């Protein structure tokens, strides 16, 4: 597990508002990826794979929370390349989650939100300040992320509808 940047005295030490945001982001990540212990094991799952079982809407809800993590990370000064990695984690999680059964299993193990918090922690724990992302870039990244997620959800719903029509003969 990564070192807590709250106690770190690096160049990227978060201010008081960042500390509150970081705690909130960690709670969101925990809720989405690790909130529910699996009895008899050390493994945990979150709401993300459970929400992913809801065709279309579940992935949208999970992606909105994950997008919020990226947005708040940008506000905390995370550099562009790290934000792109975060968005890539979300896109991979969303796209893979659309594959029936295998996608749900991958959704349980991938934990994109935990990976994104680790990226944020690494930035905040770094002794070298990174170049803060341009807000136009952040807006374009988040818009692109939502368009990709929306497109994947749209295609999933269309495929689900087509399969339903094929199976029912309607």
Radius of gyration: 17 Å
Q: What's the tally of helices?
A: 7
Which ranges are low-confidence, i.e. pLDDT below 50, for 5 or more consecutive residues?
Answer: 1-9
List how many beta strands DSSP finds: 2
Helices and strands: which structural class?
mainly alpha
Which terms summarize this structure?
170 residues; mainly alpha; two-stranded antiparallel ribbon; 7 helices; 69% helix; disordered N terminus
Kindly describe this structure.
- With 170 residues, this protein is an all-alpha fold.
- 69% of the residues lie in helices and 2% in strands.
- The protein is built from seven helices and two strands; from the N terminus they run αββαααααα.
- It has helices at 16-33, 47-51, 57-75, 80-97, 102-110, 112-125, 135-168; strands spanning 36-37, 44-45.
- Helix 3 (57-75) runs antiparallel to helix 4 (80-97), helix 3 (57-75) packs antiparallel against helix 7 and helix 4 runs antiparallel to helix 5 (102-110).
- The longest helix has 34 residues, at 135-168.
- It is globular and about 60 Å long.
SSE layout and pairing:
Layout: H1 16-33, E1 36-37, E2 44-45, H2 47-51, H3 57-75, H4 80-97, H5 102-110, H6 112-125, H7 135-168
Antiparallel strand pairs: 1-2
Helix pairs in contact: 1-3, 1-6, 3-4, 3-6, 3-7, 4-5, 4-6, 4-7
């Amino acid at each position: 597990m990564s070192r807590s940047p709250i106690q770190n005295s690096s160049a990227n030490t978060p201010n008081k508002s960042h500390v509150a945001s970081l705690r909130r982001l960690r709670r969101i990540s925990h809720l989405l990826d690790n909130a529910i212990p699996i009895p008899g094991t050390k493994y945990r799952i979150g709401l993300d794979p459970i929400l992913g079982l809801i065709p279309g809407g579940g992935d949208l809800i999970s992606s909105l929370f994950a997008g919020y993590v990226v947005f708040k990370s940008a506000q905390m000064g995370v550099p562009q390349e790290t934000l792109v990695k975060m968005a890539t984690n979300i896109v991979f999680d969303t796209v893979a989650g659309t594959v029936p059964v295998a996608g749900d299993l991958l959704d349980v193990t991938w934990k994109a939100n935990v990976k994104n918090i680790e990226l944020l922690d690494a930035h905040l724990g770094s002794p070298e300040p990174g170049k803060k992302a341009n807000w136009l870039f952040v807006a374009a990244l988040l818009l692109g992320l939502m368009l990709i997620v929306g497109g994947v959800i749209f295609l999933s719903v269309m495929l689900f509808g087509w399969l339903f029509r094929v199976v029912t003969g309607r």
